[in-house]
What does this fold into?
Amino acid sequence: MSGPARAGLFIYAKEVATLAAFYESLLGADTRHRTEEMAVLQSPDIQLVIHQMPSDQGSGVAVSHPPQRRASALKFFFTVPNLTGAAAVAEKLGGGVDAEEWQGPGFVVRNGYDPEGNVFHLRETTT
It folds into this structure.
């Protein structure tokens, strides 16, 4: 891909480096840009911009281990080659993937969460 992405997802993070490492490994994404306050990751499917929370918001956010899930915001999804493998990567990096699966048209999906508790779906194609 050349030039800026036409679409993607912007995530405010308490710990930018931790979340960037999580999504780099989970999605096999490349780092396109990185500063202390921001990381821009690119995969064939999506661009993620992970940005440091403003200090007035970040001071009120506590990240626990394991993280408390935050499912009331946007829930995004990613397609991965294998749900079982992705679950192992997520757990190793401080997140997780639930065992419960749902069938969709041409895919199976599981809920997952990153090290800060942001909930997402992981999909594996079945066709």
Q: What stands out?
A: Residues 16 and 52 are 6 Å apart (CA to CA). The longest strand covers residues 107-113. The radius of gyration is 14 Å.
